Amino acid sequence: MDAITFNDFNNHKIKESEVIKRILGGEKELYEILVRRNNQKLYRIVRTYLKDEAEIEDIMQNCYLKAFAKLDQFKLDSSFSTWLIRIGINESLARLKEKGKMFYLNKPSDHLKSNSILEIPDNKQLNPQDKMIRNEENQLLVNAIDSLEAKYKVIYVMKEVEGMSLKEVAIVLDLTVANVKIRLHRSKEMLKKKLYEVVNEKNVFEFGFSRCDRITENVMKLI
User: Fold this and answer.
1) For residue 154, how many other CB atoms are within 10 A of its CB?
2) By three-state DSSP, how is residue 119 classified?
3) What is the rounded distance in angstroms from the CA atom of residue 56 to the CA atom of residue 88?
4) Residue 190 is part of a domain; what is its CATH number?
């Protein structure tokens, strides 16, 4: 078989379903491709529930190991990332339950507070003044999003940061599309009250390269 590189996969030269078939066929080293491609998204979602960075990475690693162990149960006609996010949410909720913090995603009484869901990027290419301005803008967005209840925060991150469709968000969270729309609209309205203008800087939700490498290496050693 032809060798598959991460760049090939990232540029959509190789279909995700083909990579998964080859992993199931014995080429488990290709699982690194799926891990690296989904690290950023999984990190962002898990961090809407938990704030401790070490705990987040532990959850992420567990998600990848569980997904690998059950990869033969994955339906190739759907998105691996959507399946992985569902595992991530379940793992996060289970961890909260262990800590005595019950959280019911679909109930209107949800009110789970968490301090930080973002990581400010390393702006090495910016001059000192631009860095200061960028960091101030980023912090405004960080504070505004962190102020949202988790049920609104997770939908905002999925849709507006990750670019997932309303249908995908609804499937992952087991909600109706109408309900997702309502919560998304509510989250935007709440953010507007805290920001003078909408800031759409996706790069504030970064999972740094070194951390991406660490998670990937740990998962590949354990599978």
Assistant:
1) 27
2) strand
3) 10
4) 1.10.1740.10
**Residue 169 to residue 27: CA distance in whole angstroms:** 31
1 in a domain, yes or no? no
As given in the structure block, the two tokens for residue 183 are: 């919560």
Residue 139 inside a domain? The answer is yes
Residue 209 structural domain: 6-222
| Residue 158, in any domain of the structure | yes
The DSSP code for 205 is: B
CA 193 to centroid of chain Cα atoms: 25
Q: Which residues pair with 119 in a beta bridge?
A: 205
Half-sphere exposure of 37 (CA within 13 A, CB side): 21
Rounded-to-5 percentages of helix, strand, coil across the chain: 65, 0, 35
Asked whether residue 200 is domain-assigned, the answer is: yes
Tokens representing 113? Answer: 């507070």
Tell me the per-residue pLDDT of 87-126, one tens digit each, with 9 for 90 and over. 999 999 999 888 776 554 444 333 333 333 333 344 445 5
Q: Tens digits of per-residue pLDDT, 37-89?
A: 999 999 989 988 998 899 999 999 999 999 999 999 998 878 899 999 999 99
State the total domains in the chain.
1
